[in-house]
Amino acid sequence: MPQIDLTPLERKAHRAEAHHLDPVVMIGGDGLTPAIVKEADAALNAHGLIKIRVLEGEREAREAMLRQLAGELNAAPIQHIGKLLVLWRPKPKKARAEDDERMPGPKNVKVLKYSKRGGQRPEVRVVRVLGNQRLTPGGKLKKAQPKQKSVKKQRQAADE
After folding, report:
1. How confident is the model over 118-133, as a mean pLDDT?
2. Which domain holds residue 138?
3. Which of 30, 80, 85, 160 is deepest in the core (most CB within 10 A)?
4. Does pTM surpass 0.70?
């Protein structure tokens, strides 16, 4: 897979974002193993921008590791300073499962009840409204009625 090419301005922005990050992958004396590549891929999927610390090796070896990782993981090499390597890849969008039976969650609503006499403060009451309930203008809760099935569907269900 080819690595991602960035403009100098984009690279500069990613360098600034990576400044405060801690290394999430460490490369030891064994060098670049398949386990390290797999771990770096998982970290890129989770974070998008990662730092990698190389514990051993010369500068040329670290540059070769950065190029190899960027090529294998389809990522952009952002920076190589000392023993730190910075890689970036856009985060993949997470697939969300559509749930048809899902209802809205409960929410807390403030209900103000004004006094019949004008000079007093209104009474404040917090009411928890569930997904199948609604609040009337008077401040009372009403539950939703279950949906009625048509006569045809009731007969079909009885026949089966």
Report:
1. 84
2. 102-143
3. 85
4. no
